[in-house]
Amino acid sequence: MNIAELQAYGYFALVVFLVIALYSYIYHLYSTDKKVGGHDYEKFSNMALHDDLGDAPVSPISDDKEK
Amino acid sequence: MENRPLEYDYTVAKMFMFTTVALGIVGMLIGVILAFQLAFPELNLVLGEGLAEYTNYSRLRPLHTDAVIFGFTLSGIWATWYYVGQRVLKVSMAESKFLMFIGKLHFALYLVGVVAVVASLFLGITTSKEYAEFEWPIDIAIVVVWVLFGVSIFGLIGIRREKSLYISVWYYIASFLGIAMLYLFNNMEIPTMLGANAAGESGFGNWWHSVSMYAGTNDALVEWWYGHNAVAFGFTVPIVAMIYYFLPKESGQAIYSYKLSLLSFWGLMFVYLWAGGHHLLYSTVPDWMQTMGSVFSVILILPSWGSAINMLLTMKGEWQQVAASPLIKFMVLGSTFYMFSTLEGPIQAIKSVNAIAHFTDWIVGHVHDGTLGWVGFMIMAALYHMAPRVFKREIYSKSLMVTQFWIQTLGVVLYFTSMWIAGITQGMMWRAHDEFGNLAYSFIDTVTVLHPYYTIRGVGGLLYLVGFLMFAYNIYKTMSARPVEESELQNASPMGA
Amino acid sequence: MFHWLEKHPFFFAVGIFVTIAFAGLVEILPNFAQASRPVIGTTPYSTLELTGRHVYIKNSCNACHSQLVRPFKSETDRYGHYSLSGEYAYDRPFLWGSKRTGPDLMRVGNYRTTDWHENHMKNPASVVPGSIMPAYKWMFTNKADVETAYAEQLTVAQFFSVPYNKEVPMKDGSTKVVKMGASIAEANELALAEAKVIAANMKDQDVKDAVAKGEIPEIVALIAYMNSLK
After folding, report:
1. Mean pLDDT value across chain B
2. Do the domain assignments include residue B330?
3. Which residues of B293-316 are buried (b: 16+ CB within 10 A; e: fewer)?
4. Do the chains contact at B177 and C20, CB–CB below 8 Å?
5. Which residue range forms the structural domain that includes residue B306?
6. Of B126, C23, C164, C222, which cross-links C180 as Cys (Cβ 3.0–4.6 Å)?
7. How confident is residue C8, by pLDDT bands cut at 50, 70 and 90?
8. Do the chains contact at B6 and A57, CB–CB below 8 Å?
9. Is the pLDDT of residue B409 over 80?
10. In this complex, do C3 and A39 lie within 8 Å of one another by their Cβ atoms?
11. What pLDDT, on the 0 to 100 scale, is given for residue B158?
12. B258 & B340 share domain
């Protein structure tokens, strides 16, 4: 197997992997806000709209520690 | 002192705002001079025969590109990072002495780098690679500056209060990583002072001179992998970061679809890097790479338009704001130009179109409708939005902004239309054969025919520069305009008459 | 999994990096294994030619002139045979350019002479009426930097095995040796010997005098480089 063949296999595997990853990401994005305990991605927009130091964070850093 | 509430600290953002404006003026002024030198070659002697070496087109040309890319745009990226970064992570630079120091050091070293670059390019010290003209000592300085930028990004992220990273931060991280990788690989070079002869003597000649690690075709391949993606991670990714913050904030509208913004992000990350081959169509790089460059360029329309449409739809139901606010005008026209140039680029990357377009002014036109219409407009809009918040004053003049908007829009339109015509005219003339199969035109015929278009282009560029000077004046006067209350700064920026 | 990634900046950054690095990994790196071999007849640059190449780069000639003939009839008619990868084997950096404000120079040595270049660089419009190229008069007085070119020759010979002082096959079956000085003094001598040949075909008395005195003006080096482009 020469280097060009390796390149071709690498390229193909990569494209397949990324297509799968991208589609499962789309699925994840749209399914998670329906699930209990899922995340509503759209609320992240508020990070720009409410960005004063005094505003409550959309997902505070302390969330993690409580879990 | 202790009772003073914590505030965002914009010291570093202010510094970079200053260089954005100053280097923008320098870079665009040189650009206008270059444009008129092509139309009127006597201008090569603008400062007389004695200084001709330094006012000559070829000496100034790299200065123009580097001043607008590494001066204006990079400063703009950093000015907005040191502003947006704090806000969406909800943490102030004032909370960390270390990050404050890094930020200031970042700026100081950047200034040193700017001086070194300007001096070396005037002297003709260049590696000749486009957008990577700097010799190795400056390359090392740039790497250090870049690392400081990285420390600042990840430092700020490290002390954030907001767990999730806003989409703009994603884009800033991507810019940092992308440019770091590209710059390092493209600038692999060996200083020639290392070369030793049989007697063991070395250190001959200029100590700053170096020779590329790659030769010929490979060198071209790496250079355009870099050159193309420097556009990606310098002119697209960080500018998208800006608009995802500034457009929602200024209009008070949430992003139309946050999910779409995330998808477009990953799409852009993956696809962009492959498209570099379209700079080398019909050259001596392997055919499959050329084809891949073409194909991926066309696919690139999807993630680019994903972002652009998302921005335009953010204004859904709020289009009256476009009429009412010049700041929104800048951003909406910017994203329109983004759509426009991300469609034009793939068209030029199609092999048969590229056969005509390559090496002509059409490419120059394409670059400028992206940079003037999208990058320039977006950075100016960002600074307009930041100025009232950074200085706690209203923008000096709204009517000046409106005038500037129309002058610059006219400038951009003159620029790209004239370059389209020039490029396609020249491309067609180069390939024209007469009835006997001989070339129909000698090369000089294809140069003299361009004179009117070069003149129009110069005028277009001049209009844009005039608009930019109005912008600089407006920002300058904002520093002493009417002070405003915090409550006026929620969304739409306060503007004076 | 995706959400976890979004909340962990370090792994998130790694994810981005992998995504953007893949293209380079698959597309570019493997190619270095098969770096192009020089075609027969391609020789390394002599000391003076390399000095001239530096003058070319110093003045960003590549901002307006390409060195890449594409495989179209109109281009081969105008400039000669289309470019081959192996012809660039000794080009560090490559000088293909991205804009043809002026004509391609890939094979300019085939159809322009020393005399033509001399007149052209002094006043382009005198040879090509309507030319928008600026004059490069300072090249007639600036001294060329042979020493840096010599350092570069040593470097490429040492690090990239560029065949200086070795027999290189030519198209007609013969071989040619491109000499590189063993010392800086010899390098200067080699360059000067080449410069004398060029200067003999030039008209500018100041340039001739300078070369006679052992100095090499930039223009002489540049013309040597231009003449080598074939």
Report:
1. 94
2. yes
3. bbbbbbbbbebbbbbbbbbbebbe
4. yes
5. 165-190+214-318
6. C164
7. confident
8. no
9. yes
10. yes
11. 93
12. no
